[in-house]
Each structure stands twice: as C-alpha cells, then as structure tokens.
Amino acid sequence: MTNPIPFIDLPAQRRRLGPALDEAVARVMDHCGFILGREVDAFESALREFTGARYALGVASGTDALALVLMAKGVRPGDAILVPAFTFAATAEVVVWLGATPIFCDVEEETFNLSPDSLVRGIETARAMNLRPVGVIAVDLYGRPADYDRIEPIVADAGMWLLTDAAQSFGTTYKGRTVGTIGLATATSFFPSKPLGAYGDAGALFTDDEALATTVISMRMHGMGAAAYDHVEIGMNGRLDAMQAAILVEKLKIFPDEIAARRRVAARYNEGLSGVARTPAISEEEPSVWAQYTLRIAPDARDGFRAALQERGVPTAVHYPKPLNQQPAYARFPSAGNGVPVSERLAREVVSLPMHAYLDEATQDRVIEAVRAAL
Ligand SMILES: Cc1ncc(COP(=O)(O)O)c(C=O)c1O
C-alpha cells in the first residue's frame, strides 16, 4: 500500500499555530484557573464578535449545548421534538434524556438537510399521537445550512421554537445570516475533528434571548444562583474549561482562512470528480464549511469503492451508516408521515473523502485519481 493519507490533518494545523498554542496553554497552567474564567470570557467575546450573536456561551460539548437549551425550555415527557433522521445521534439523544419524544423527519436529497415537507408531516404525526410538538432541532449536515427560509415559517406557525444544531456548520452563513443567529438558539461542537476543533471536548451555544442565556449560564454550573452554593435550577456540569478556551481563541484567529482553504479543496474535488461520481452541490447562498466532503456511490458498490481507496492509502468515512430510526436505541420512536426513505437511502450511499484546510493539491490529486480508478 502507498503512503497513507490522513483523513484530517491536525498535526499540520498544529505546526502552523506553533508557539502561540504553547504560550496559550502555559498561561493557563501558570494562573491555574482551569474552569471558566478569563480564557472562557475572552473566547466568548471573540465568538460574539465572530457570529454577531448577543450571547455566546462556552460549554463542555456540543451535546451539552443542545441539552442545555432543551432543559432551559423546560422540555418534558409528552413533548415532541422534531429532528432529522439523518444526523449524529446526539441530536436526538438529548431529547430522550428529558423524557420527550423525538420524531424523525426525512431529509432532502440534494442538501442532506431537514425536509420542510417532512417537518410538516412530523408535526401532524406528533399531534395524532397526542404529543405536544414544542420544538425543532434542524441540523446543518456536513457544514451546509438547512433550508431556514422554509423551516422558520413552519416552526412559527406551529407555535414552536427552533434550535439549530450547527455542530458541523459553525463558521458559515445562510443567505447572508451568520450561523449562530438563526432560530431561538444555535448549538455547536468544538470536537477536535470539527472545522473549529479544540484539543478535547468543547462546545458553545448562541442566542439573542436574554432569559434563555441567563438560565443556561445558571444551568451549565449546576443551576447556581447569585451566591455560592445557592441553586435556583436543576442544572448540570456543562462548563467549558480554560485550556480548551485558550486553544480555541488561537484557532479562531486562523479559522476564516481555514474555511477559505476548505472551500478551495471542495471546489477542486467537484472539478476533478464531476461526471465520475455524484458530487455534493456547491451553493453560493448557503455555503458549506465542508465539515465533510461527501460523495454518493451506489449501495452495492460502496464497500468495494472504500476498499479500493484504502488499497491506495486513501481513507474514507461513512456519516452515517444508519439513519436514527434504524438504530437499536432509537427504533422505538416515531417517524414523520410515511417514513424517512431519503434518509434510509442516503445512509447506504454516502462516503466522505479526506477533507481539511491543509490538503495540498498533490495529495488531493492522489485522492481524485484513486476515486477515478475505483469507479
Ligand atoms: C450533528 C451533530 N450534533 C451534535 C454533535 C455533538 O457534539 P459533541 O461531540 O461536541 O458533543 C455532533 C458531533 O459530534 C454532531 O455532528
């Protein structure tokens, strides 16, 4: 096998950031304030500036960001939360934590994102089951924003709130609106492999809603009140730590440049592979940050395709091999209307190629060549 290509090249980014990261970490080790504190304040302030959101709150993970919004909204048994079936499990997991019912909606063929038509059917399904449809979690899968112009009026007409799961899309915009300012709140993840990744678990949530922000600030720290050991809410330990914040402050500085590089890589893949494979759509109005660059391959050819690439040192990944409605832990929850056939088909067809800001042209040509040869 030829020299293996990394799927994501974090060491290349580490080399670029050089001593800035060492110094950031050393500052935290010197002052020994490890939880929240000045680095988290600085990161939150940089996030507010980056997104334009009124509140940016650092939390321990993307999952906690989602959960904290649901907790602050008082989600409880009998509530239904509409989520896409084709997403990472965390989107639905937090709903189940609170005893509410996730209703799986289908996604759109071209964008992989929540289908507004299926969302309407999902709301009907919830009502038919005597559940209260209170909220929607729309996911910006692979880094491309969902169709908010169509989703927002459906959510508003039904008297629900919209939480956007931007774990994969932080850094982009939707028709000129920054991700982080759409819906009641936005949750994102800084898991190391995300477009903006920490050196461990980390996340953030964004909102313009003062009451929600105040409740989340309390809930991320065990529901604390104004005084120490005064508990006014049932909360959790969802705090961001200073080391991650210090690292993220440095990484955020180069993030716009990295996003531009990801976009160049995606455009170059599309150029090199169009006509050979089913390539993802590139949208000017709803640009992706390319958390993943994902092809579609006929289901019966996918395993062979992946093996052929592996043979040439090109790793691939499948996000995700099953939609949530087919996962053992989630199969008991309802799907919208007539089910989620697009999600089920996509799960059998998608394959992601190496994608990161440091993929040089020669290496990318090796990937393109391997794909062309395999097909
Ligand atoms: C769509 C989606 N939602 C939620 C999460 C959860 O984020 P975290 O791993 O930071 O908890 C992830 C990433 O892992 C994700 O991809």
Automatic annotation (TrEMBL):
GO molecular function: pyridoxal phosphate binding; transaminase activity
Pfam families (alphabetical): DegT_DnrJ_EryC1
Signal peptide residue numbers: none
InterPro entries: DegT/StrS_aminotransferase, PyrdxlP-dep_Trfase, PyrdxlP-dep_Trfase_major, PyrdxlP-dep_Trfase_small
Active site per database record: K194
GO process annotations (BP): polysaccharide biosynthetic process
Keywords linked to the UniProt accession: Aminotransferase, Pyridoxal phosphate, Transferase
Post-translational modification N6-(pyridoxal phosphate)lysine, affected residues: K194
Claim: Transferase is one of the keywords in the record: yes
Annotated coiled-coil segments of the chain: none
Source domain of life: Bacteria
Family per similarity comment: Belongs to the DegT/DnrJ/EryC1 family.
Annotated protein name in UniProt: Aminotransferase DegT
